[in-house]
Structures are given as C-alpha cells and as structure tokens.
Amino acid sequence: MPPNPTSYDTASEMAGGPGTLEGMKRLWTPAWIARHVAMVVLVVGFLCLGWWQVTRAASGNTLSFGYAIEWPVFAGFVVFVWWREVRHTLRGTRTERPTPAPSATAGSEPAAATAGVRRPVRVSRVPVPGDGVQDGDLAEYNRYLSWLNANPDAKPGDYPG
C-alpha cells in the first residue's frame, strides 16, 4: 500500500536527514559511542541501585523507600538527557534556509537582523576629570595597589605604608 501523501514525512528522506544512514553516522563517532555506553552503564547501575533499595525497604529499612523511588528517577533523567542530545545532533545535520531580511526603504531605520542579538555598547574608559581634588583614601589605596603590583611575592601585611 503506498503511503498517504498528506501524512507522509518526506523530511526523513532528505540527504543527511534524521532517518537516513548518513544522518545516523553522526551517532557512531568515538565520542558518541562513549556517550551510548555511559548511558547504558548509568541506567543499568541506577536501576540496580533502585532494586537494591527495594530489597532493603522490604527487610524493614523505611528510609530505603525514598531511595527506591529516587534511583529510577535518576535513570529516567539520564535517558532524557541522552535522548535530547541525540535529537539535537540529528537536527543539526539539516541545512536550514535563512529567511530573507526585509528591505529597508529610504529614510527608515534598519530593522534588527535577529531579535536576540544586540549591538555592542561602547563605554568610555577614560576617567572623568573631577575638580582636580583627589580623595586621600583613594590615593592611598592606589599607592597600596601599585606596591602590591610591584611586589607580586609580598603579602598584603608586608605593605610599609
């Protein structure tokens, strides 16, 4: 029976798409194999620890009831993170088409390219000149910092001033 064209997903048949062999090759690199193995070891270990806590709880240790629930939750979290990373990696193989930026008319201000990206703000790093009077405590502190900079091996308690 041919697939229904209205519900058939052709995205998985694109070159490098999530369901193709080329897309799945990204999950068989040495780093991903280590992640798969770590996920299996952690899930099996957490479920074994959960079963161990169930047997302790059955023998009368009431505190183990909480741990018997906690360890499978940890295993579920590991599976969740692993699945999310797999999906993220497979979605990264698709080539996204950039949306064309709207053209600006003469006299109008250009629109921001991306809502989350802002232009850097330039801040003057030149000290603002005051009345010419310098605070005595500030001058003493600056001398202290200059002495610490000139004597990097000295302790702050060695300051002669």
Secondary-structure blueprint of this entry?
Blueprint: H1 21-24, H2 30-58, H3 64-91, H4 136-150
Biased composition (Low complexity): 102-132
Transmembrane segments: 32-52, 64-83
Protein name: DNA-binding transcriptional regulator of glucitol operon
Description:
- This protein is mostly helical.
- It has a domain at 11-91.
- Helices cover 47% and strands 0% of the residues.
- The protein is built from 4 helices and no strands.
- It has helices at residues 21-24, 30-58, 64-91, 136-150.
- α2 packs antiparallel against α3 (64-91).
- The mean pLDDT is 78.
Short précis:
This protein is mainly α and 161 residues long.
**H/E series, N to C?**
HHHH
Major beta-sheet overview: none
Query: Could you name the ranges where pLDDT drops below 50 across 5 or more consecutive residues?
Result: none
Q: How confident overall, as mean pLDDT?
A: 78
Output the keywords.
161 residues; mainly alpha; 4 helices; extended; transmembrane helix; transmembrane; DNA-binding transcriptional regulator of glucitol operon
